[in-house]
Amino acid sequence: MTDQGVLVRDTVPDRATTFERLGEGQLVASYRLAAVLLRDRIEAEDAVQDALLRAWHGWPRLRDPGRFEAWFQRILVNGCHDRLRQRKHWARVAQLPEHSGPDEHGRSDERAALRQALGALTVDQRVVVVLRYFGDLTLEQIAERTGSRVGTVKSRLHHGLRSLRAAYEAAERTAAEVDR
Fold first, then answer.
1. What is the SS3 assignment for 92?
2. Which of 127, 126, 108, 105 is nearest to 117 (CA)?
3. DSSP summary character for residue 8
């Protein structure tokens, strides 16, 4: 049984307090996930807030509170996915916060190229790539959180990585030309 299941079963009989504790445990990871998916800090905050509201309203229907994390992530991912689909102009997509200089490994150009390459992916591809490599989820976990089949997740991941590689290499070439 997960720690969340123990929390629900053993310590807190009050519905609101239980939800609050489980939700607070998801805030940091959820914000990071939303920020990478949406590439906009403020929109990520809004997405997490919306997901918490949806989760609160759906809380009575959650059959196994020990599965809160996966259930909540699915709500968040679906909300981020909807936000990405609703964007009419990709030019409005803001970048993740820029570092003022090179990071501790001197890779600020690589980070910029990666951000640009992630922005070039389709919404479905970006969701799968981010959940796999930033969220460190298995293909089965991604399928559960996105409501897709494992085969669909594999396909989106394969095509997304191929597109990501091509976009990343193009961004690096562009950066190298600018530096000359």
1. helix
2. 126
3. I
Residue 158 confidence (pLDDT) = 95
The model's pLDDT over 78-104, given as tens digits with 9 standing for 90+, comes to 999 888 888 744 434 444 444 444 445
Residue type for position 108: S
pLDDT digits (tens, 9 = 90+) for 127-172: 899 899 888 899 999 999 888 999 999 999 999 999 888 887 887 7
Domains of the chain, with CATH numbers? Answer: 1-95 (1.10.1740), 106-180 (1.10.10.10)
**Cα separations in angstroms, 172 against 11, 93, 102, 130, 167:** 52, 20, 15, 20, 9
Q: Residues 129-139: pLDDT tens digits?
A: 989 988 889 99
Residues 6+ apart with CB under 8 A from 73: 26, 30, 33, 135, 145
Phi, psi of 122, deg, nearest 5: -70, 165
| pLDDT value of position 172 | 73
Helix extents (H) in the chain? 3-6, 15-24, 27-38, 41-58, 68-86, 108-120, 123-129, 139-146, 150-179
Asked if residues 117 and 171 have their Cβ atoms less than 8 Å apart, the reply is yes
| Contacts made by residues 1-4, CB under 8 angstroms, sequence distance 24+ | 1/66, 2/66, 2/67, 2/69, 4/65, 4/66, 4/67, 4/68, 4/69
